[in-house]
Amino acid sequence: MMRSLCRLSTIFVLHWHASRGQDFPSLSSWSYQYQQYWGNIVGATCSSYTSQSPIDIPKQLDKVEQKNLTTLGGGEEGARLGSLAWSLLNDAVNVTLHPGPVTWEVRMTNPAAILVQLEGVDYTLQSISFKSPSEHTVQGAHNAMEVQLYHTGKDFQGAERRLLVSVSLAQREDAWNKFLDPIFNAMPQDGAGTPSIMISNPWSDLAPPDRSFVTYDGSTTAPPCEAATWVVFMQPGFIGVRQLEQFRSGISGYQPSRLAPANSTRPLGLSDLWDSRWGYNSRNTQALNYRPLSLVQMANAPPPFVPKQNFEGSTSIWPILICIMLFALLVTGCLLAVLTRIKRHKEEYGHGCCDDSDEEEDVRSFQQLQSLQQGATLLSPLPDPYMHMAPARAGFGKHNQIYLA
């Protein structure tokens, strides 16, 4: 009897220690399944009390500015949009491929081959990684994959800075991403070896034609969660069903798995093409905590990629016409009400009456109402075309209602 009690006590203590061990994961043993314990990792800064990433991009932003995409000349071949500029001097770059239990990583052989500048700070591209589903969301809606370009640089005081550029990819059955094709085909499926290949410049073949972006201060999305500045492109690209399955099945093959377990509930915003059998390597969205978000819109986007202010991707203009008609009826009703009251006042007191304070008050009230209505037409409740009020469908932040394929 005593021996059995001792055995049970030993099992209980071991189980308690094992469960407590999850509270303190290390930089080499963390997993996406136990993200709630990342704040306890020694040597990391993943606490929710700091500015963390990813985030859910809300409808209302702190700053919205329209900028034209310009071409850089004078031996600096590239382009600029607002505070962001990038080099296109190299059409292709040499990289090495690194499979792993949490993501696939592409590392630049020569980081200086791809140069980026943000707010006067120069950055070089170090690596590219992949997350599925997308880590950043727009009004809660995911996309099938998020490609993250990791850059480093030094600010004016010589301190190291990190810049992460996010490109979201929507899953589509008939799509095939030519930028990902050589990477995914050469990535070792058994996790052995680090092959070297050449890929195209991601700023040419991966970044979307419409370079509108949201920028904010956050962190890297995996431990040690270092401070970083983010540039999140708002127009999604596309990834094929087989390409996405190739990646998700590849990272799910490592045991013990460090992914979040498969979930039969499809993430918000994804289509029924999403395969729920594989795990996730995405961090949950973090609290914004009053951090400012800025949107830079590309005013001169190519015509096929100009955002469409339509409902559910329809080309119908009836919703717009109905809104215009309702506004016209409202203004007409106000005019008729004011004119009727003025007429009644004149009939009651005559044309020679000097006491017109009521009439002036009516006119002033109408002018104030009219100015408020005019202001509402100039300041749309939707601050930009990437935050649509239509129900979520496949696509990053409901983009399929905006960008028509």
Automatic annotation (TrEMBL):
Record bears the keyword Transmembrane helix: yes
Top EC class, one word: lyase
This protein's UniProt keywords: Lyase, Membrane, Metal-binding, Signal, Transmembrane, Transmembrane helix, Zinc
Alphabetical list of InterPro entries matching this protein: Alpha_CA_prokaryot-like (IPR041891), CA_dom (IPR001148), CA_dom_sf (IPR036398), Carbonic_anhydrase_a-class (IPR023561)
Keyword Cell membrane belongs to the record: no
EC number: 4.2.1.1
TM helices/strands, residue ranges: 317-339
Catalytic activity of the protein: hydrogencarbonate + H(+) = CO2 + H2O
Signal peptide: 1-21
Entry's family note: Belongs to the alpha-carbonic anhydrase family.
Protein known as: carbonic anhydrase
